[in-house]
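Retro notes, item 3 of 5
We never archived the inputs for the flavin-adenine dinucleotide complex last cycle. Fixing that now. Sequence and ligand:
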Amino acid sequence: MDLAFSKDDLAFREEVRRFIDENFDAEMRAKLAQSKNGYLDKDGQLKWQRALYKRGWAAPNWPVEYGGTGWTPSQKYIFESETAAAGTPLVSPMGLKMVAPVLMAFGSDAQKKKYLPPVLASEVWWCQGYSEPGSGSDLASLQMRCEDKGDHYLLNGSKIWTTHAQWADWMFNLVRTKQGAKPQEGISFILVDMKTPGIRVEPIVTLDVPVASQQEINQVFYDDVKVPKENLIGEENRGWTYAKFLLGHERTNIAGIGASKRELQRLKQRAASQPKGDASMLQDPVFATRIAQVDMELRALEITNMRVIFAEARQQAPGPEASMLKIRGTEILQCISELQVDLLGADALVQGGDVGEAARSTSAYLNLRKLSIFGGSNEIQRNIIAHMILGL
Ligand SMILES: Cc1cc2nc3c(=O)[nH]c(=O)nc-3n(C[C@H](O)[C@H](O)[C@H](O)COP(=O)(O)OP(=O)(O)OC[C@H]3O[C@@H](n4cnc5c(N)ncnc54)[C@H](O)[C@@H]3O)c2cc1C
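Structure as it came back at the time:
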């Protein structure tokens, strides 16, 4: 793994910086400064994602034949570092990083042709219908009924914690097509148009000082929803295989190195400007040690992440190391958000209508508790490591 940048790499870095200057505009910057989770509202997200698309940079993780960038690992690294340093919006993963790899691996030619180009262009917004009120970690127990009615499927049940379902045009779902001997055996993977009659999206109010434009999660109800047969991915009852493939991709993307770097930089700047006696909080030995500790952990994680990126470049699917990235990445981001709140002291106790840095930090702190729960909780990731790496 050679991280020394070539002349071409340095030229590419300039190109990336120019792109950021030209497209990450003042309006986006101002909105993002208020964001608790690195995302903008839907319009802002689409503006950024479409700018990437126009430049041909929407999908660094896709193969070139589908519109991927064809970047070398060092170009990927440069792009991630530069966008993180500039604090650009995160890209919504549900279309580009979750359903797209599944379509490429298991979809029919007609499905690839229909769904992949609009994902690349951010013309459709996707959401993920895995979890149900009774099924989270034990996902294989899911019960959303999917009956074969001859010329269509009929779906009944409910999905929960569905991120950005209120914005979504399409949802990829795990559904039960058979009550098998093993629960994993009767699951199928199906795509559903959110405009289909019988679908109802209800917001879930969260603790993190919700602002309407920043509402994140929902419960989605399915009441006799008719879905065309051609929306099934791969074979009936083989959905568990596709679901596991997708989760591997979800976890590598979840390391959140870019977000952690951006937040750490923001923390250091704020600590430097906050007085402590004759010096600043950044010079306070106890606080500085805590910052240094998390900084070191982030750098170590970044190298581990690079190793995974290089392995992926050699066409190796992400394995249990994705679980390591998920655990460390989420712990680090949560730790930085704790330091941001600690830095505020009593000012962190904001009121519902407050805006500004304190409200944002507290809101982000509360919001980011989700990181150790979603994408497979950190306890579940530890189980995977125990089983697949340690052989326990
Ligand atoms: C903000 C947010 C957004 C989300 N977005 C989506 C989305 O878009 N789409 C989607 O499908 N889902 C989404 N989820 C759901 C998420 O994937 C689940 O919350 C997660 O899988 C955990 O499931 P659960 O909430 O049912 O908790 P449970 O599975 O009930 O777990 C409760 C606790 O028990 C622990 N636990 C459970 N089983 C074990 C075990 N075997 N060993 C050790 N500990 C265990 C868990 O770690 C956890 O601490 C989201 C969740 C959150 C919080």
